[in-house]
Amino acid sequence: MAQTTFGVGGLTYDHSKRQLPQELNVLIALVLIVAAFELLGRALLGDSFLLNTRDNVDTFFNQARLQIIILQVSIVGIIAIGITQVIISGGIDLSAGSVVGATAMIAMSFAQVATVNGNPNPKAVFLEQGWVDLPVLVPVLVGLACGLLAGLINGSLIAYTKIPPFIATLGMMVTARGVAKWWTKGEPISFPTEPFAGIGKGLMPVVIFLALAILFHLMLKFTLYGKRCYAIGSNEEAARMSGINVERHKVLVYAIAGLLAAVAALVLSSKNLTAQAGMGVMYELDAIAMAVIGGVSLSGGRGSIVGTVLGALIFGVIISGFTFLKLDAYYQEMVKGAIIVGAVVLDVWRQRRRGTRG
Amino acid sequence: MAQTTFGVGGLTYDHSKRQLPQELNVLIALVLIVAAFELLGRALLGDSFLLNTRDNVDTFFNQARLQIIILQVSIVGIIAIGITQVIISGGIDLSAGSVVGATAMIAMSFAQVATVNGNPNPKAVFLEQGWVDLPVLVPVLVGLACGLLAGLINGSLIAYTKIPPFIATLGMMVTARGVAKWWTKGEPISFPTEPFAGIGKGLMPVVIFLALAILFHLMLKFTLYGKRCYAIGSNEEAARMSGINVERHKVLVYAIAGLLAAVAALVLSSKNLTAQAGMGVMYELDAIAMAVIGGVSLSGGRGSIVGTVLGALIFGVIISGFTFLKLDAYYQEMVKGAIIVGAVVLDVWRQRRRGTRG
Amino acid sequence: ETVGVSMALFDDNFLTVLRNGMEEYAGTLDGVELQVEDAQNDVARQLDQINNFIASGVDAIIVNPVDTSATQAMSDAAAAAGVPLVYVNREPINVDTLPDNQAFVASNEVESGTLETLEVCRLLAEAGTTDAQVYVMQGELSNQAAVQRTQDIHDVIASGDCGVTLNIIDQQTANWSRDQAQNLMTNWLSTGAPFDALISNNDEMAIGAIQAMKASGIAMDQVIVAGIDATQDALAAMQAGELDVTVFQDAAGQGQGSLDAALKLARGEAVDQKVYIPFQLVTPANIDQFLAKN
Amino acid sequence: MSDIILRTEGLTKHYGGVHALVDADFELRQGEHVAIMGDNGAGKSTFVRQITGVERRTSGKVWFDGREVDFPGPLHAREAGIEAVFQNLALADDLDVPSNLFLGREKILFNLGPFSILDRKAMRQATEAALKRTAVKIPNLGNTIRHMSGGQRQCVAIARAATFASKLIIMDEPTAALGVQETAQVENIVRTLKDNGESLILISHNMRQVFDLVDRIIVFRRGRIVANLRKEETDGQDVVAYITGAKSQNLAAAAL
Amino acid sequence: MSDIILRTEGLTKHYGGVHALVDADFELRQGEHVAIMGDNGAGKSTFVRQITGVERRTSGKVWFDGREVDFPGPLHAREAGIEAVFQNLALADDLDVPSNLFLGREKILFNLGPFSILDRKAMRQATEAALKRTAVKIPNLGNTIRHMSGGQRQCVAIARAATFASKLIIMDEPTAALGVQETAQVENIVRTLKDNGESLILISHNMRQVFDLVDRIIVFRRGRIVANLRKEETDGQDVVAYITGAKSQNLAAAAL
Ligand SMILES: Nc1ncnc2c1ncn2[C@@H]1O[C@H](COP(=O)(O)OP(=O)(O)OP(=O)(O)O)[C@@H](O)[C@H]1O
Ligand SMILES: Nc1ncnc2c1ncn2[C@@H]1O[C@H](COP(=O)(O)OP(=O)(O)OP(=O)(O)O)[C@@H](O)[C@H]1O
Ligand SMILES: [Mg+2]
Ligand SMILES: [Mg+2]
């Protein structure tokens, strides 16, 4: 029973009682919510939430629903990955949604086709300059550059002027929203080129989301970058005294968050075949909620990408489940608020029962 | 030079170098911004921002502008007072704006007149029940009860389930927005009674705002309530170990914030003679920004109502200044973001120079 | 039959009337079930809602587009799943390439702003003004109706159809909101510049402006105030002699029309693919026709 | 026996796989001063946290002042009459010294429930008096605790526990950060408590101090109580032998 | 003189009206071990914070290793060769022990700049070795520092400073929270440093320890250096007299 493998000095440590990973709570919440929808569906509608019940399709699961559950949270999920690493390193990013809007507008204006149905593209911003039918790399690079810039500004403000991240990114939120509207005086931009439209087609958003999730999971767990995120989020003063260049790291963290917001913007505008100044409004709040539901601590130093992905799935299941149950839209919002709270309550409660808190 | 009045043990303390109140920074920022608008106005438009330049009026200042500067931030200012005490005690309230929306809808539906221009009021919610032309006390009490309820739910969740305030109030934000839309299925409610319309008439919002500001300034500075807000925000564990009933206090803090949101809702719907489900959206972010610009620390334990009032005035000056300069709306937003950041940068910078940080 | 409906947003005065019209009408039909979702002004959310409808196997979908330039992706999604789709209230950008089982019932926002501005011109001319100073209040700048209605004003000025010269003193957004409009108008009044008319992108902002003017003691028969939507509040203000111009759009009619089209498509019947519903000018002269409508 | 103020039976605390406190049986008589010694990580602070309700124990029973108790929080322990100086000091960093000293027990001018008006002047004066007893030097009582030196902080915590009447005082390494003078002063305070008949549990690593101040020494080792020694019957060498495990009494530790 | 590793001249720090450090002139020779003693709040930690760049001084000059320096942050001080154990320990509460020990100096498997892959196994093994030297007992190195006892935390901080080669080690009350055994072990570590010729500044309130370990004792009082005593020429009584102000050398303190 008593093992001492992980300690020094020969103290009793009961290895069998090692703490289960925190993400388990989130997984349990996810399963509970899915089960609730499945049961309610069978009881109220006589229909199944996850399994296929249509005769014209012969799959076991309702494929369309499984896909939309994750597809509809992929884009906010990409933002949530960036926000997760920001929160772990002790910050917050309120600007992500607005950066998505601004980036989508600017990138999309470099992704326009020259003619629509034989007529010159009515929505092309740079038609006169002839910047149409450009290779897909152009809007992608332009978009990433926009996100990077926004992130660098956020990061530099936070690192070097020491203002609270809440304020720096709130300022960026207001400013980026202004830029998004100013770019075309509020006019939406449509009709992207075929290759650009390919970025967000079909299940591409899911693929991009999951690939990024895996990448950042590895980065946070196994690299210097990750270790420093946790260290700075846990105790910034200690990290600084230990010789970590806290300022440079923060700039990097926010720059990466900006890049991820840009990726989200590219996927979003490609998927919708349009860019609008109002795109992405409030996405940051959903993204933060996903992270926190996934066990990321808002005071920094704790959390994981796996948790955030599970948190995103909870959101996806909720949205699809409500539509499945034909719940009135008013009640949807009311219940959604309650479920967000409920998922976190479950997490806190299980952690306390295990004695790691209080 | 050396005085020891404030210490024990006979140590050197140079009383003359006592730190100036932190609010001074905010005041300086305010003055700088006003000066900037005054100068820009004279340079670009040949007009004065603050002084009267109209022949048909004979006041020294431009009274109308002075009034609107504060009038337009009074309602968000009332919310900011509530949020200030929440932040000082270590929390955050994202639900205030949505609670305003829900409260305005519910309260307004009890403040309807029976007839409009001789016809039965087309917007009255409880016309059939005959709940029209009720005394003004009814909608006021109903509204305050709504705000109180929302605050009590927020506070109880945070205090007793120990979930982060960010999440509890985010949940409430989503839920309250749902309630606001559900109440009349999205229909706005107009045509309130004369006495109800009086609540927000003319400069009443300013009077209410300033009265509440003074009340809460005194409360935070001189009562047990205030001391406990600061103590809990500074170190919750220590406060608990010292025998403060942290849970009960938190419920009280959020309940009061809810009440203030309800006051804001009453003033807002009365001033506009209508209630709409979308009212108050994002007010919480402005309110938080006002508080932080005013020197309230988002990590709790520090800040004051005086600072928040000054922060609110900065907002008011910015809005009026932009309109005065006829700045395009796009640029307004971009510049507003920068000014929010700039005001806080100034504050942080001055604090560091004085050596109280780092 | 189940029909999925995705509305651009719930807390909009006009769209609420449309939605309620649709739901009331569905209540009178046998075996028709509506499932109404709120896209909360987010194009991406709207597309996801359509995909959720498809996953739930609805028989037809009605979309009130958040933005008409985002309709291509929605048409593609519905077409791929073979579910009929009807756009309501706002004309989709892919109007000329709609698949066979898709249609729209909408009005053209170019009309609304144009009707509003021309009526303001007429009233100004009637009052003998030749060189008019006007303020323009815009809706949310990221919103298509706001952009279009503002553009209409400029187009009328440029076309020369307006008998008088309109000088725009300032043009600002009040985000569709009555409260922001009150504040904005008060700020304008504090500059002391004289003006003859206020052209607003909707009635709510016009009413906010009126409240601000009344508070500053401006005689309401000296200025012309114009809005769009013909809401009950606006009609009351018009009866009180404060609001001079508004523009009516048959919300409930559009709701019914779109549902009819959706049901027909679901049953494989033929429909008119394009149905335009015109805007109508409302003035004190014809107000009685509209009192019971929106 | 009514003169036993505190008794624990089988008190146990596990943190996940860490058995920080195992089967602690402990008794403290009214007016007795007892020291707890032991290696770092032996479970001394854990023991204190279980008694004062800061944490919920895994198992075991506690009697205080004649009644079996299970405090849901430190507030209840304090109300029952236990004052504690915790190792982490439990001070509010952003408040000044008087506010910290009276934290949770503020002096009131008018009673209006939670909105009572504070008597700031009385608190400042009482603070000066309380701190003088510890001999600490603090240049400006109006400065926030955040800006105090390690020893200044500790003196504030000690002054707080010593100022309010109680049935049992627990001090977890109270003099660890104190200077020579301040340590002597605090030891004087402890002696005064003895004279007043107040019971005390003192955790300390300082052998001289322990032998100077207490009646009895309890030694913790690896979460267990391994020795219970009357001061007269032992000496420093002996205690160290118990601490390092070179010696062991026939207590629960027999199971080791 | 090239054998002077650290020198300060007129080093002064004011916090608002608090004159925490006034005109400190200090010299440390290569390989010398010096103790700083003084009352709580005398300015000892403040002195350390100015030297290591944690705070910016109000005035005065510092020479380190032959060059005049003004470190903008602790990172630079460390790069120049100063290791410090600060009084507040500077540990990241949410990280485990190896991560804290190697904080800012992680072992790398592949170098990819900021995205380098960590060598977690090597760090764990090195941690076990480093901690064994302090004799501390930690049941699970994978636990977060937040859940360690006061002494365990302190040992981690000491192990960190002692593990990495440096020109000057500063320890601010390193054994304050340590048990008997651990204290002895840490004192051994200090002796090893002496043998290796590393310079050391030790802040401590423990007279026995100071006389055991160092060559020279500096006494701070009210922000000023009031005595500079060679160990052989003084004794405990004498030092206490300087600390309490009963005695005073003809240093800058003459101005008092
Ligand atoms: N919250 C916790 N979670 C996990 N382990 C803990 C927790 N608190 C304490 N421990 C572990 O329990 C053991 C006992 O800790 P405790 O703080 O009681 O020691 P202590 O005897 O007070 O030591 P010190 O003399 O260093 O203060 C230690 O091994 C410590 O790591
Ligand atoms: N940031 C600060 N702001 C204001 N005063 C401070 C600050 N830091 C320290 N002080 C004051 O400076 C004086 C010296 O503090 P310092 O921490 O150097 O003392 P010390 O000698 O290390 O004491 P101890 O032995 O208790 O650790 C104290 O009176 C303290 O209150
Ligand atoms: Mg301890
Ligand atoms: Mg110190």
TrEMBL record, chains A, B:
Annotated Pfam families: BPD_transp_2
How is this protein situated with respect to the membrane? Multi-pass membrane protein
Protein name, as recorded? ABC transporter permease
Assign the protein's first listed, main location to one coarse class: membrane
Lineage, broadest ranks: Bacteria, Pseudomonadati, Pseudomonadota, Alphaproteobacteria, Rhodobacterales
Which compartments does it reside in? Cell membrane
Q: Which InterPro entries match?
A: ABC_transp_permease
List the transmembrane segments. Answer: 24-45, 65-87, 94-114, 134-153, 165-183, 203-220, 251-269, 281-298, 305-324, 330-349
- Asked if the record carries the keyword tRNA processing, the reply is no
- Reading the lineage from the top rank, the first entry is Bacteria
Question: Which keywords does UniProt give here?
Answer: Cell membrane, Membrane, Transmembrane, Transmembrane helix
**Coiled coil start-end:** none
Instruction: Look up and give the organism this protein is from.
Output: Rubellimicrobium aerolatum
UniProtKB/TrEMBL annotation, chains D, E:
Question: What residues does the ABC transporter domain cover?
Answer: 6-247
Pfam families of this UniProt entry?
ABC_tran
Q: Which GO terms describe its molecular function?
A: ATP binding
- UniProt keyword annotations, A-Z: ATP-binding, Nucleotide-binding
InterPro entries tied to this protein: AAA+_ATPase, ABC_carbohydrate_import_ATPase, ABC_transporter-like_ATP-bd, ABC_transporter-like_CS, P-loop_NTPase
> SMART domains, from UniProt?
AAA
The name on file for this protein is ATP-binding cassette domain-containing protein
- Its source organism is Rubellimicrobium aerolatum
The organism's taxonomy opens as: Bacteria, Pseudomonadati, Pseudomonadota, Alphaproteobacteria, Rhodobacterales
